[in-house]
Amino acid sequence: MATSKAGNGRRIRAVSVAAAILMAPVLPATACGSGAKPGAAPTGSAARTGSGSPSPTGGAAGGASGTASGRAPSPHPTPTGTAATVPQPTTGCGACPLPGGSSGARVTVSVYFLHGEKVSPGHRLATGPATAGAVMRQLLAGPNTVEAAAGRTSTIPAGTALLDLDIEGGLATVDLSGRFASGGGTLSMRARLAQVLFTLTRFQDVHSVAFRLDGRPATVLGGEGIVVDHPLTRAQFEDLAPAVLIEAPAVGGRADGVLRVEGSANTFEAVFGLTVTDSAGRVLVVQRVMASSGTGTRGTFDVTLRYSAPTGGSGTLTAFHYSAKDGRRVVVDTVPVVFSG
User: Fold this and answer.
1) In CATH, which of 2.60.40.2550, 3.40.50.720, 3.40.50.300, 2.60.40.650 is domain 244-338?
2) Which of 293, 296, 286, 295 lies closest to 319 in space, CA to CA?
3) At what angle do helices 132-141 and 186-200 cross, to 10 degrees?
4) DSSP state of 312
5) How far apart are CA 301 and CA 292, in angstroms?
6) 268 falls in which pLDDT band (50, 70, 90)?
């Protein structure tokens, strides 16, 4: 393993990380090998990256699956799309070999922002082999202009710097500048923790995240007293994930008649719906979907929507479910898409 010294004298152990979100196979969805975390990017057994300047690149990609229906889904529809049976919090096939994933290949990585009070992924194009540190710097740079226009925000304070990042034994230990803990109440503090946690746990070998601030182990975050003296997992932040978390397409993804939609869901009986509408609100497709699990357990899904798309303009991909309490339709996430014709 090669080592080098950063300008500040910190030793850096660089291990390649290929992050793949949109490389999952077409339906029927399958797990990517026994015990693999769907949607995560492979890492080495240990990785360390030092500080560096943010260098975000924009990018979004469309995805795929399903059939059209002229009616809205019923509260208990017959499932038409299923996904991997492993109920992991992420999706895709990041553990599978990446076609052309060698040095110089372009890969898609995810960073997590907020849409309202829930996490929402943004896609970035990176030149492989990418590192977890490079992805973290993309996160710290914040939403791009397209994402910001679509209501994506970040609670991570501007000016927060990545000082160090070590990945070993399934644990990512991230060292951020003290700026990370400045300002905001309980929701803001938990949201920024979730942004980092969701971003790093997209990597295959990362299952939990420990935080350090200015080189010292973090114990309590902010004046609200959020305890962070132990490794954190996604399960502890389930309340900050939408009932249907769309991992692909991202904001601004192309939706030209065949749209692959991947993500995870935790809905009543694992059932929910997807719709695509044009800029005038005309419904182009309605799709019933069943995730691999639900009703308290987050499952995965991978479906392909097929429809007659406009020759240009914009539209919206909407995820919704029906309330188990009163049958009311509940919209849980929206993703702006474009029709290029």
Assistant:
1) 2.60.40.2550
2) 286
3) 150
4) S
5) 7
6) very high
